């Protein structure tokens, strides 16, 4: 059975180091970088169901929705301009993530976070005061640029900072912030939508300034990671910092490995073209496929469009926003489960369990919607129990995502790249994530209109494919120090053919000879 890996903690190097208050607080502050991404994901869906917002900026969508009450419910929101509003952000984020590769590598992780916060702040300001569609789009482009910088740098920062035994949990703080951001946004939408005078959407959009300030201030007070300091020629300061972060004096072994990784990194002049070398094939494959699969779970259909979706299946406007709040709570709580379990049960277990759970729920939701709406999209009267069943299964689906592909889609890429390609590969990860987030956001309403309930089966198909991929091709990475990660490829039944002994001067060789063996074949 190709179980992926059998390397547990204790088999490889064991750097001394504790979960110090210093590293914990540092990681919590840095993880808050996820708030801006989450806030934005949660806010757009709700705002685009607010009547005054639609009437002001997208009157044609409003008219169609009003006129459409008794006809095909699948198609009532189908509008290119409206989806462009949601998805323009993701294209901007893609561009920024590429620029962030150089800044993160040459100037440090912190500076990319700072840019992220400032750009996001500017975007929130423009959106809160928007008078015309072009201002909305400009605002969203600025927000997107901010997200590109933050998502590129924050996960790397966390994975470098954390003691390796707790890396999973600390890194998932980022995803936890994303989910908290989504939830807060959903709750705010619920209340702001009720504001008389119809300007609540301005508060929703302008409210993004708050998470922007948090990451901006955070980036100013956080220390840089030792890995990045060494990479930028500050070795002695890095040693002192490493002692403080780990809470022990004996950091020599880890420090030496960081310096070795940095030396290897200096030999690489063109990280982008380097990524194409054969020995980086496993890394490149993961940098592309993990974010691709994460988006093809279909999660953002729920995240962006939960109110729209619930509205479509017969909830009133208020009930729709409320249901989105419920899925938001499930999302946060289930992410905590993964913080608890990721360094105990491992990444592969969570990926596979989450996959099965999502698959079952997608099939049930498709069957429920298909049974009532058929292909005409005309449900007649919907009984209450029916709506409850749909929301329940959507919640179980969200929980499955929230302890698997959600956090792991950010964690695993941030921990598997060697330093010399880390920043560039992480940019590929973010860029691919954004392209497919964009595609899902852009085509979802049209797909719902054409594929109807089959849309859920479409994503279910991808969940099967990604689970098979994880089973055969994704090695376990729990409990392996980040600069020692190459051992997991060397001892993998498939990826070992791409990795050659002389590729890794960092001591991995010794380890793989020292009995790790091909347990995982
Ligand atoms: C994904 C987002 C998604 C969110 C939901 C993140 O990991 O990248 O696309 O909306 O999780 O919690």
UniProtKB/TrEMBL annotation:
Cellular compartment(s): Membrane
Classification via SUPFAM superfamilies: MFS general substrate transporter (SSF103473)
Residue ranges crossing the lipid bilayer per the database entry: 19-39, 82-104, 111-130, 136-158, 170-193, 199-222, 284-308, 320-342, 349-373, 385-406, 427-447, 453-474
Residues covered by the Major facilitator superfamily (MFS) profile domain: 26-478
Superkingdom of the source species: Eukaryota
Membrane topology term: Multi-pass membrane protein
One of the Pfam families matching this protein, by short name: Sugar_tr
Record's keyword terms, sorted: Membrane, Sugar transport, Symport, Transmembrane, Transmembrane helix, Transport
UniProt cross-references to InterPro entries, sorted A to Z: MFS_dom, MFS_STP/MST-like_plant, MFS_sugar_transport-like, MFS_trans_sf, STP/PLT_plant, Sugar/inositol_transpt, Sugar_transporter_CS
Membership in a protein family: Belongs to the major facilitator superfamily. Sugar transporter (TC 2.A.1.1) family.
Protein name: Major facilitator superfamily (MFS) profile domain-containing protein
Classification lineage: Eukaryota, Viridiplantae, Streptophyta, Embryophyta, Tracheophyta
């Amino acid at each position: 059975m190709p179980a992926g890996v059998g390397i547990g903690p204790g088999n490889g190097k064991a750097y001394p180091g504790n979960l110090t208050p210093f590293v914990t607080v540092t990681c919590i502050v840095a993880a808050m970088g996820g708030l801006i991404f989450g806030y934005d994901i949660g806010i757009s869906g709700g705002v685009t169901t607010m009547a005054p917002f639609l009437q002001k900026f997208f009157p044609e969508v409003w008219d169609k929705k009003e006129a459409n009450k008794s006809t095909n419910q699948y198609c009532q929101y189908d509008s290119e301009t409206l989806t462009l509003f949601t998805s323009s952000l993701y294209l901007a984020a893609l561009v920024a993530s590429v620029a962030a590769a150089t800044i993160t590598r040459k100037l440090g992780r912190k500076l990319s976070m700072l840019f992220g916060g400032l750009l996001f702040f500017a975007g929130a300001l423009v959106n809160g005061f928007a008078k015309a569609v072009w201002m909305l789009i400009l605002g969203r482009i600025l927000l997107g640029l901010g997200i590109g910088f933050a998502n590129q740098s924050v996960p790397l920062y966390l994975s470098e900072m954390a003691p390796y035994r707790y890396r999973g949990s600390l890194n998932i703080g980022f995803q936890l912030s994303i989910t908290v951001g989504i939830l807060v946004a959903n709750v705010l939408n619920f209340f702001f939508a009720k504001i008389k005078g119809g300007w609540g959407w301005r508060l929703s959009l302008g409210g993004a300034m708050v998470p922007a300030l948090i990451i901006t201030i955070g980036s100013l007070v956080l220390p840089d990671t030792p890995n990045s300091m060494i990479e930028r020629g500050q070795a002695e300061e890095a040693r002192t910092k490493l002692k403080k972060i780990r809470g022990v004096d004996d950091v020599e072994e880890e420090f030496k490995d960081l310096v070795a990784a940095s030396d290897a990194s200096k030999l690489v002049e063109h990280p982008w073209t380097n990524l194409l070398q054969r020995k980086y094939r496993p890394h490149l494959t993961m940098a592309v496929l993990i974010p691709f699969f994460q988006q093809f779970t279909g999660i953002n259909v729920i995240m962006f469009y939960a109110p729209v979706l619930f509205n479509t299946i017969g909830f009133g406007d208020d009930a729709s926003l409320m249901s989105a709040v419920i899925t938001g709570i499930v999302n946060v709580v289930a992410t905590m489960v993964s913080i608890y379990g990721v360094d105990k049960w491992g990444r592969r277990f969570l990926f596979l369990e989450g996959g099965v759970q999502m698959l079952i729920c997608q099939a049930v939701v498709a069957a429920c919607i298909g049974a009532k709406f058929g292909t005409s999209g005309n449900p007649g009267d919907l009984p209450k129990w029916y709506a409850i069943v749909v929301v329940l299964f959507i919640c179980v689906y969200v929980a499955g995502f929230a302890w698997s592909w959600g956090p792991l889609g950010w964690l695993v890429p941030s921990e598997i790249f060697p330093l010399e390609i880390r920043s560039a590969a992480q940019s590929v990860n973010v860029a691919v994530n954004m392209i497919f987030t964009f595609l899902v956001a852009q085509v979802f309403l049209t797909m719902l209109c054409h594929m109807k309930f089959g849309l859920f089966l479409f994503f279910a198909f991808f969940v099967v494919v990604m689970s098979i991929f994880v089973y055969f091709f994704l090695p376990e990475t729990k409990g392996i120090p980040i600069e020692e990660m190459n051992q997991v490829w060397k001892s993998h039944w498939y990826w070992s053919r791409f990795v050659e002994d002389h590729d890794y001067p960092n001591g991995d060789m010794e380890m793989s000879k020292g009995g790790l063996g091909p347990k995982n074949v």
